[in-house]
Amino acid sequence: MSLDSEVRKRSDMTEELGSDQDRIMMSSKTTTTSFMQNRKWLLMNTHLNAVMYSSCFWVQIGVLPYLSKKLGADPVVFGYLQTTFAVVQLCGGPIFGRFGDVFGSRAALVLSFAAAAMSYSILGLASTVSMLFLSRLPSVFMHAMQGSQMVVTDISDKEGRADALGKLGVSYGIGMVIGPFIGGLITKKYGEQSAAFFAASFSVLSIIIALLFIPSNTKSLSKEEKSADKPQTDSKEQPGSVFSVKMILELLKIPTVFYLITIKIITGIPFGIFQSMFALVSMEFFKLEPQHNGFVMSYVGGLSILVQGLVVGVLSRRFSEAVLLRSAVCVIALAYALLYMVTDIYQFCVVIIPMVLGGTTLNVITTSAMTKSVVIKNTGAVLGLSMATNSLIRTVSPTVGSIMYKNYGWPSFGLLGLVVNAAVALFLFVHGKDTF
């Protein structure tokens, strides 16, 4: 073979190699672009369903106290009704999380929206107090926000997770604005039960959206957590085991998870009492009509949108999670001190600003930190535990709240919140963790 032929052969091989490398790079760019497009489309539909779910939930929340009073339930029975809802959700939260880990986020979301549609339909048909209690039972699987958090957690990186979860909270906050407003208008013109049927019909629409636009396995879209870098749990459960109590207990043994859940429970008790009784307080203490109560709830939802959409993302990029946790608890304690002195609805609208700021920041930061402390296959379960703390609080808070309100009045809620959160803040500054 001549020298010229050898040179031409090597030149051709180099060109072919370069061409192969170009094809690989183009393929990589196409895959990345496809992933980003799928991620944006998935996020858009997840946020849309979060808005619809929140709207429907707050429509029926606004309806419930007025319908229960219309059917003859007193404040204590109303407290029992709230407790029933909390107990049912407490039982379902961790199971729902495992269900999402095993069968995928789409199946979990469909299950949740179906449960919501059934719950609201029974509420719309309710003609007795017993049917009100019956309407709470399907809510055992009514955890659409938890399902949405599963999706966002699966496709977000660790550095931006707090911001991503905060923006999901924005969608929930939009629903808090829309839902009470719509519910108040429908209740005024057509009655409480019509508002409940409205919520049921839009829950069915959410099922269709989830089936059409949410992939069955969102964990496969995770870029950086396919290989777990924090194997805290060594679960030997079969992949299909949904009712895995051992798995849940193993998650609780993770120091960060246990630490954050304990803080959430303690600081959440005063807020759970306050939240569970506010609908009744607004009706009896502030003397608000259903429409005006809807305006107040929409105002709170607007504050939540502002905090989660703008404030949490900025703070999470500038400060550590430990610093934000301490600061949030201090702000909450201050808010309760001011709440103790509230005598009218206008003062309440001012005081609720620091409470929403502190409470929202605490919730987003603790949820984000917990998902980072487990491997990707267990994020649904740990989100279930996080949601279960809220349900656990609601199992006792309505009953305790009704007793406190009946015997000590509205100011007792502010005093309890001040004492509890001041104690937690002191602990965090003296013995709290600096890193998670």
Automatic annotation (TrEMBL):
<feature type="transmembrane region" description="Helical">
    <location>
        <begin position="345"/>
        <end position="365"/>
    </location>
</feature>
<dbReference type="GO" id="GO:0022857">
    <property type="term" value="F:transmembrane transporter activity"/>
</dbReference>
<dbReference type="InterPro" id="IPR011701">
    <property type="entry name" value="MFS"/>
</dbReference>
<feature type="transmembrane region" description="Helical">
    <location>
        <begin position="109"/>
        <end position="134"/>
    </location>
</feature>
<dbReference type="InterPro" id="IPR020846">
    <property type="entry name" value="MFS_dom"/>
</dbReference>
<keyword id="KW-0812">Transmembrane</keyword>
<keyword id="KW-1003">Cell membrane</keyword>
<dbReference type="InterPro" id="IPR036259">
    <property type="entry name" value="MFS_trans_sf"/>
</dbReference>
<feature type="transmembrane region" description="Helical">
    <location>
        <begin position="295"/>
        <end position="315"/>
    </location>
</feature>
<comment type="function">
    <text>May act as a transporter of organic cations based on a proton efflux antiport mechanism. May play a role in the transport of chloroquine and quinidine-related compounds in kidney. Plays a role in the regulation of lipid metabolism.</text>
</comment>
<protein>
    <recommendedName>
        <fullName>Organic cation transporter-like protein 2</fullName>
    </recommendedName>
</protein>
<keyword id="KW-0472">Membrane</keyword>
<feature type="domain" description="Major facilitator superfamily (MFS) profile">
    <location>
        <begin position="42"/>
        <end position="435"/>
    </location>
</feature>
<dbReference type="GO" id="GO:0005635">
    <property type="term" value="C:nuclear envelope"/>
</dbReference>
<feature type="transmembrane region" description="Helical">
    <location>
        <begin position="195"/>
        <end position="214"/>
    </location>
</feature>
<feature type="transmembrane region" description="Helical">
    <location>
        <begin position="322"/>
        <end position="339"/>
    </location>
</feature>
<feature type="transmembrane region" description="Helical">
    <location>
        <begin position="79"/>
        <end position="97"/>
    </location>
</feature>
<keyword id="KW-1133">Transmembrane helix</keyword>
<feature type="transmembrane region" description="Helical">
    <location>
        <begin position="413"/>
        <end position="430"/>
    </location>
</feature>
<dbReference type="GO" id="GO:0016324">
    <property type="term" value="C:apical plasma membrane"/>
</dbReference>
<feature type="transmembrane region" description="Helical">
    <location>
        <begin position="374"/>
        <end position="393"/>
    </location>
</feature>
<feature type="transmembrane region" description="Helical">
    <location>
        <begin position="257"/>
        <end position="283"/>
    </location>
</feature>
<dbReference type="InterPro" id="IPR001958">
    <property type="entry name" value="Tet-R_TetA/multi-R_MdtG-like"/>
</dbReference>
<feature type="transmembrane region" description="Helical">
    <location>
        <begin position="48"/>
        <end position="67"/>
    </location>
</feature>
<dbReference type="Pfam" id="PF07690">
    <property type="entry name" value="MFS_1"/>
</dbReference>
